[in-house]
Amino acid sequence: MDERSALRRLAAALPAAGDDAAVVDGLVVTTDMLHEATDFPAGTTRYTAGWRSVGASLSDVAAMGADATAAVAAYAAPSLVEEELDAFVEGAVDVCDAVGAEYVGGDLDTGTEFTVASTALGETDAPVRRSGAEPGNVVCVTGTVGRTAAALRAFEADDVDRGNDLFRFPPRVAAGQALAPHATAMMDSSDGLARSLHQLAEASEVGFDVSWDRIPVHDAVEEYATDAADRKRMATGVGEDFELVCALPRASLGDARAASPVPLSAIGTVTEASEGVRMDGEPLADEGYTHE
Ligand SMILES: [Mg+2]
User: Which H or E element spans position 187?
Assistant: First the structure.
């Protein structure tokens, strides 16, 4: 069973699960597990690992349109090295500070592989779920996509400073809250833009038609992409960018843009489910990040 099949199985058994985060009486809760082999390329500092793992959970809180309040993390590594732990906690504290949340502790263990399990909490009276997008809505994305794809190329090229910089993404908590009153559906692009569109389509029972030339691509993609096809794949099919992807009524686009603290790009329209997910009229493959 791959990660997506396993998550589907759990969602079937747990009705509150299946969105970016669960919401219980206005309290938002989400948890993620990251580990060295698949999530932290060689060269990733413990500071970046702290930022990124806790940031991934904060991003899921953002995806519900909620205020992020607190986070914890459990840290396991083959040995507990003082400087590494300090750097990890510093990264976790800094990413929480960046979104006005508090890093309030965690747990430690030794284990064969460096692994982090993070949990973030948030609050909202009106969560925005993945279901709710309607044909005729516009589909938007915050910031730029392709940041993580570029980071992975930087690590591969031994440009570790660049890789670490790109890996420390800003969780879109303020944007999520600003978009919440307008959005009919929202999620974060933790599995990449293409896969996010497929997941939103499935949850909302709609289709999407997006335009490649409206997709905001991170500058670093240009530096590392080998050709036009590679650029497209880096931008839409790699994942873990942690931007917000949302649908909203066309009439709300101006207000949503004015409210959002980060650029909001309208990349296409919501269509009928029978149309599927398309880019420039052609089917867009459900490609992205999946743990095997
Ligand atoms: Mg998510």
Answer: strand 185-188
